[in-house]
């Protein structure tokens, strides 16, 4: 079942097409990556999902019904990239206030805050002021205030920014835990290695449009270049030559080979066996999301430039 569906969403600021006809579906319980370069339209899209902006066109379907910001906002937890905390307020009071705004009773809120503060090693912070927190500490507090009311949809914009590796792991484990309990996470970041590690499904937007949509594994396979690592037990005394592949890189007994059109990985292995060369390792090299991201974004830039040239002429 889809927790969220966006149907043909558009948001223009004067002539700036911040979001230009984006549709997508997000399955309940998934960890979904919303990616795109600076200015791609991610924040604008998230602001429409959270009811901060009304779309110019299109609709947001949350949990099977047309999204109504007034009543449905408690189903969503949104952690924006910029801090939204009151600097002078004590941390415990702040968490309590925000939890009650999200519909929790005072006693329920206290219980949940204690639970999360303990989990994220924040017990001693209750009487500190927000202005006395470091960047990473306020990021943790903001995370807690986002998830405290157990929203069905949790939107995290750059949740690891400012966190040291230990705290990043702590938050990462909580994200997995929340997804396992049935919450859906939308995760927006520029850090591709985090996306590869955490997300099941991604959407890439650029210039207000969706340019890629799929599961991380499926996308990596879609863009694969049929390259394999081959490790031999010894440096061979022959030059590796075969119609099935060509050597793209070599270093001593380690090779990167690219399979030629019309051949399969087994044809490569067969070559090595027939030459009586011992293969210690053989594995496919899939492109990183980072490479896929850079290539696609460069491609859309080039296409837009050529359209602009055609229009100008
Ligand atoms: N309130 C606004 N008024 C005018 N233009 C805006 C407004 N908000 C966003 N834009 C423009 O819309 C486009 C998309 O901006 P948006 O903030 O959604 O991008 P983003 O993908 O979140 O970028 P980043 O990764 O840098 O945060 C940009 O060209 C931006 O200048």
UniProtKB/TrEMBL annotation:
UniProt keyword Coiled coil, yes or no: no
Keyword line: ATP-binding, Nodulation, Nucleotide-binding, Transport
Entry's Gene Ontology molecular function annotations: ATP binding; ATP hydrolysis activity
Pfam families: ABC_tran (PF00005), DrrA1-3_C (PF13732)
ABC transporter domain segment(s): 4-232
DNA damage listed as a keyword: no
PANTHER family: ABC TRANSPORTER ATP-BINDING PROTEIN, ABC TRANSPORTER ATP-BINDING PROTEIN NATA
Family under the similarity heading: Belongs to the ABC transporter superfamily.
Protein name: ABC-2 type transport system ATP-binding protein
Originating species: Parafilimonas terrae
Lineage, top ranks: Bacteria, Pseudomonadati, Bacteroidota, Chitinophagia, Chitinophagales
